[in-house]
Amino acid sequence: MNHLNEQLSNLVQGRVIVPGDPSYDETRQIWNAMIDRRPAVIVECANASDVPVALTYARDNNLEITVRGAGHNIAGSAICDNGLMIDFSKMNHVRVDPEKRRAYVEPGTTLGDFDAAVQQHGLATPVGINSTTGIAGLTLGGGFGWLTRKYGMTIDNLISAQVVTADGSQLTASETENPDLFWAIRGGGGNFGVITEFEFRLHPVGPEILAGLMVFPFEQAKQVLTQYRKFTKSAPEDLNVWVVMRQAPPLPFLPEAVHGKEVIVLAIFYVGDIKEGEKLIAPLRDFGNAHGEHIGAQPYSDWQQAFDPLLTAGQRNYWKSHNFSELCDDALDQLINFAGKLPTSQCEIFIGQLAGASNRVPASAMAYSSRDAKFVLNVHARWEHQSEDEKAISWARAFFKATTPFASSGAYVNFMTAEEGDRVSAAYDTNYQRLVEIKRQYDPDNLFHLNQNIKP
Ligand SMILES: Cc1cc2nc3c(=O)[nH]c(=O)nc-3n(C[C@H](O)[C@H](O)[C@H](O)COP(=O)(O)OP(=O)(O)OC[C@H]3O[C@@H](n4cnc5c(N)ncnc54)[C@H](O)[C@@H]3O)c2cc1C
């Protein structure tokens, strides 16, 4: 460690990690194995006061700054070569006030940490579907999951945040304090400062919910999708059904002959009375002749981890995503066309259902503007070996292009890859200009620019 890093080490309460440190390589790893970058310094923060110290050090030494929540971002924006990474992995405490139904959450918290803490009180708020994702990045981009139809996006449940801005000020952002900053961080990503605490509204959920999978033969994809489209038009908001098209994993409830074959899966989640849910989902069985199903009452926090085995860190990943306000026939045909030529065994296409509470929030209420999105599509290319990069990436790009004419406005910044810079303004649609103005106010020099960047 050089003299300057030693000085930094004396100023922060957390750890300073530099190349050569035994934990350096582990700490610089992120979810997407396509990203292999070597920062000059990592500040593993112990508390919020370490953040302004790290920012000053980076400025004084002309270092680029990145911020890492749980390192899940597909673009790898948590890390850069030769810069300073603010790492929150040790700040993952969640304090719950069950009376007020509030959670106060540190920025290194994963969704699994969060769900575990709030479910102790039978509470939850909408977050994503993979428990190792970070709540920080997820929230700053919008955040959606199984509870979104009923309770909105994660940001719709954000009450306040503690923010360290580019000049080192520590501010509260809420409807009443620095409301413009609060407007911007709800969807505007890491552009406006470093969040050191999130305060969320919680709702009674579970602890048992009804959830599971129905797996249909790929040959029945068109009939499943057209019936899905009809069914989701009138299904209550307690029910959320997603579509996944991929090769069948070796799930014990599927005949062995189906393992590794293309299938179309309905992933089903119902948050109301279990018996009522069973009645509501019965018609899904008539969508086709299912290979098998595994559905039942289970703890909410178990279902929140159900997809973890398919989404482990360390594989190569490339994503493309669109929002849809409706699923027209041509879009469905493209889905089937591309799901029929998956380039690797781990690639998948999923459609998540958003329709509900999120659509009732005006597009101008906060930075995230895609309030007409009823579905979100993610083309999830995933593979193991570098030699497969080209075929997996070109498949995802071709599919994205083929479905572009049917997409609705906006885009989900949390699913955007590094090269989509020109899509950022489109993602925020009519809110973009206001974001630029707020960026000028809080970060005129664009200190926080290694993200889906809003240029001041
Ligand atoms: C397997 C998987 C499943 C997913 N499922 C969902 C899902 O169901 N729903 C959904 O909405 N999204 C989902 N996502 C997308 C996810 O929301 C984004 O990848 C998000 O960026 C992850 O947050 P993170 O903190 O782990 O990311 P990181 O890579 O650590 O951070 C991403 C960026 O967020 C910003 N950031 C992070 N922390 C802070 C902070 N404290 N202050 C300021 N800026 C910060 C920085 O710009 C950083 O570069 C999923 C991602 C993966 C990989």
Automatic annotation (TrEMBL):
Cofactor: FAD
UniProt-recorded Gene Ontology molecular function terms: FAD binding; oxidoreductase activity
Pfam families reported in the protein's UniProt record: BBE, FAD_binding_4
Transmembrane segments: none
SUPFAM superfamilies cross-referenced by the UniProt entry: FAD-binding/transporter-associated domain-like
Source organism superkingdom: Bacteria
PROSITE patterns: FAD_PCMH
Record domain FAD-binding PCMH-type: where: 35-205
Key words of the record: FAD, Flavoprotein, Oxidoreductase
UniProt record similarity statement: Belongs to the oxygen-dependent FAD-linked oxidoreductase family.
Annotated PANTHER family: BINDING OXIDOREDUCTASE, PUTATIVE (AFU_ORTHOLOGUE AFUA_1G17690)-RELATED (PTHR42973), FAD-BINDING PCMH-TYPE DOMAIN-CONTAINING PROTEIN (PTHR42973:SF39)
Protein name (record): FAD-binding oxidoreductase
Organism: Photobacterium chitinilyticum
